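Instructor's aside before we start: the two examples that follow are unrelated to each other. I chose them only because their records fit on one page, so don't look for a connection. First example below.
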Amino acid sequence: MAKILTILTIPNQILRKKSEDVSSKKLAEKKLQALALNMVKTMKERDGVGLAAPQVGENIRLITVNTKDGVLILFNPKITKNSFAKEWAEEGCLSVPGVYGKVRRNKKINCVYFNISGEKKKISAEGLLARVIQHEIDHLDGILFIDKAKDIQKADSINL
């Protein structure tokens, strides 16, 4: 049974660490499979569109993304192609509660990853899906959206 995990928030230093690749051998481990499913439950429970492993205290290259067609679980996601065209749009983050800002991201991307079964997959994404994947991969590199954002709006009680 999947459980809800605690989401780390700034200024927790785990959010600033670069995450390690997951070896193909580890992909089959029940502990890692459980982490992925717990992340999915946590993301949905918190109304998130994406969640990266560092946000739940694990510095491994794993993200979950909630799409209109269902949930994606991406191990070792790597963007292989970016569109030349970029666009600004508002973003927020479960690890930076109460803060929003406009971030410029590629409109379209191609991404390779391993799914929960250890199969290598490729996805072409545009619009919101491309934005979410880029946002979550940034987490794997220790980058938060506030590092790239302009027009940041925040609640008075938040210290950045």
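Example two begins here.
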Amino acid sequence: MKRIIIADDHAVVRTGLQLILEETDEMEVCGEASNGEELLNNLINNNYDLLILDASMPGKDGIDLLRDVKKISPCMPVVIFTMNNDNHYAIRMIKAGASAFINKETKTEYIIIALRRVLSGKHYFSPEQSELLAEIVSEPHKFEQLPHEQLTDREFQIMFLLATGLKNGEIAEKLKISKNTIANHRAALLRKMNMESNSDLTRYAIRQGIIE
């Protein structure tokens, strides 16, 4: 029986995933966490075969949390389970060590297929992610020239949050870093992208399909 840990700040999501996994005969939920700190402490003291991780939880989240997880459990596969539909962000998460990036609205049967594939040592990509990866491989210069591809992972994360309408203070609280740090990242990413305002970021993100 494969030991699964679920990290999500919504109890209803953790319960829903547990019910889904109870339908299988090879996966069992043996651990839960509702924030990044709780997850990391759990991983230090226990061994699991797979982590299902919400990329947007209180405390550390996203790519930073994934990298911390990989430092503690480098061989444990991680499946990102999120409401974020951005395939560009999905590719960044996969490059950072995730084995799959699944939207929370995915049908149950596909969630199970994805988890089984990851547990077999492979990656799982949605058709849209596979198409984007193929484009990146076949036309790398096209993507290297896109403004958001010049950003660091942290800058991209902040760009995404700014584009969705969050203010510096809200982002600082969410990411648990100072407002000054957010302001510095904002200034740097606007400069790299040759943009002047959050509205510019929002229009760009919509045009590129980063947000809807």
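The chain has eleven helices and five strands.
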